Amino acid sequence: MSQFDDPDAGRSVTRYLGVTLREQADEGVVVGTAPAGRHLVDPLGIAHAGVLLGMIDSAGGVCAGLASLPRWIVSTNLVGRLVPRKLEGGVVLRARLLRAGRNSVVTTIDARDDATDALLADAVLTSAVLEPAGGPPNYDRPMVLEVPPAKTELADPNSFYGIRPAAAGVELPLTDTVLNPWGILHGGVTTTLVESAVRHTLGGAHLTSVVLHFLRPGRVGPVRTVATWIGSRPDGELLRVEVRDLGADSRTMAIAIVSATPRGTSS
């Protein structure tokens, strides 16, 4: 049985993000919708960058995966610009195929406020094509992935995933809650780790851009993430973020270059 056929394995993050994905009649287009929820925004009402980027990774990854069948993909690089603004409704995502090659797939994704159509984020995701153990997911086409609504009010991302301050950064134990169907750290959790480390270093901030390289899977844990200030530029402070698996000889799982503005800046 493919791990994708198990309705519970690696599904906690997907359910938390709450994105229903629908393949469109246009070739190479997937649309995602996520209802409004307090877990999507910070105390100022601004969408969590890590949550938005996790949704983008999900929508773009599925779009890339469908283009790769009968194989599947893993995310390798995510480049995005974010607009820190108050979220008035839910989130609508549109992922579109840019290029499908034998070894990699490139998709572009935008995220908008469904109440105002205001742009929240725009990104490009590169994914590597591989042969998944147990085979790829078996979807009816056109694909529809419905996510059931949450039964209770969801916690903020750090609380839900179990992210905590530690040694000049933040740390996360690898529990079933944060794994994907491959049994490794979910890319949507990695994006929240990056955001959390930046906020820890700056004492609160909103991300405006990210260049994130997924280098190796996280399998052991705990995972430690540290953001180091590099300098300033017109769109904010510039930081380098490293994500390491301490239980696997502290190997580097991901590296990001991020710009961020102090909290309180919004559109």
Topology (SSEs and partners):
Elements: H1 12-17, E1 20-23, E2 29-34, H2 49-68, E3 72-82, E4 91-100, E5 104-113, E6 119-130, E7 144-145, H3 157-161, E8 164-166, E9 169-172, H4 187-202, E10 205-214, E11 223-233, E12 236-245, E13 251-262
Antiparallel strand pairs: 1-2, 1-7, 2-4, 3-6, 3-10, 4-5, 5-6, 8-9, 9-11, 10-13, 11-12, 12-13
Helix pairs in contact: 2-4
Can you offer a commentary on this structure?
The chain is built from 4 helices and 13 strands. It is of the alpha+beta class. It has a single domain (3-148, 159-262), classed as Porin (Beta Barrel). The protein has a 13-stranded antiparallel β-sheet. Strand 1 (20-23) and strand 2 (29-34) form a beta hairpin. Helix 2 (49-68) packs antiparallel against helix 4 (187-202). Mean pLDDT is 90; it is low at 1-9.
Quick structural overview:
The protein has 267 residues and is an alpha+beta fold. Helix content is 18%, strand content 39%.
